[in-house]
Amino acid sequence: MWTLIRLFNLSAAPGQTGLWDSIQKALWTDEQGHDVKLSPLFYRKSEPAAGEARVSVLLLHGIRFTSENWLDIGTLETLAKAGCCAVAIDLPGLGRSKSAEAPAPVGELAPASFLKEVCEQLRLSPVVVISPSLSGMYSLPFLFQHQALVRAYIPVAPICTDKFTTEQYQSVKVPSLIVYGDQDTQLGEVSLQNLSNLANHSVVVMKGAGHPCYLDDPDTWHKALTHFLNTL
């Protein structure tokens, strides 16, 4: 199993949105039951300045991006102000988790147990999963195999949508918000075609935005995100 242990944190002053960076040690239990230390995984976390969070959110990222993008465009802060506990991780092999070995090659489906264990260790279940681009290889297996652990699903032109059948999509009852930029004429449109088979979904098309549409228009992204979260 994966064991995540926070090594340090920097919290905001009282009354402000709490934001901190944490490095996680990953331990894998081998067949003989011995803990084998792997390379660190990195995440950033935000929480409401006061009171309990009303929902947990896990933010993933694409191959050219990291958790830092969610910090830079204000998504972590926006979620905290909306009353959410939000965690943005650097996926294995990328960003500040670069030395961590990925559980599957790029473009192949990762074991659903990876995100399951991350969510369990960070106490995020049931969780809203935000999944752009590359991270589809992680989020889609988790969604299909562990619906009970997913509060809602927000795919942003993810990869690997073609690896599942129409019937599999229709079996997912989790509320889903499909987001893509209208200038993303390749992966955006292909993923939309497949994801539209989800039983309980709505779609936001971001005008003038490309593949990383949330970076192209953070204001529209945040409005769509908070509106959807308020419906849960």
From TrEMBL:
State the reactions this protein catalyses. L-lysyl-[protein] + acetyl-CoA = N(6)-acetyl-L-lysyl-[protein] + CoA + H(+)
Under the heading InterPro entries, the entry gives: AB_hydrolase_1, AB_hydrolase_fold
**Single biological process term from Gene Ontology:** positive regulation of transcription by RNA polymerase II
Give the GO molecular function terms.
acyltransferase activity; hydrolase activity
State the source organism's domain of life: Eukaryota
Gene Ontology cellular-component terms listed: cytoplasm; nucleus
Q: Record keywords: Acyltransferase included?
A: yes
Q: Which UniProt keywords apply?
A: Acyltransferase, Cytoplasm, Nucleus, Phosphoprotein, Transferase
Q: Where found?
A: Cytoplasm; Nucleus
Q: What is its main location?
A: cytoplasm
| Recorded family membership | Belongs to the AB hydrolase superfamily. ABHD14 family.
Q: What does this protein do?
A: Acts as an atypical protein-lysine deacetylase in vitro. Catalyzes the deacetylation of lysine residues using CoA as substrate, generating acetyl-CoA and the free amine of protein-lysine residues. Additional experiments are however required to confirm the protein-lysine deacetylase activity in vivo. Has hydrolase activity towards various surrogate p-nitrophenyl (pNp) substrates, such as pNp-butyrate, pNp-acetate and pNp-octanoate in vitro, with a strong preference for pNp-acetate. May activate transcription.
What protein name is recorded for this chain? Putative protein-lysine deacylase ABHD14B
Species assigned in the record: Echeneis naucrates (Live sharksucker)
The major lineage groups are: Eukaryota, Metazoa, Chordata, Craniata, Vertebrata
* Gene symbol of the encoding locus: abhd14b
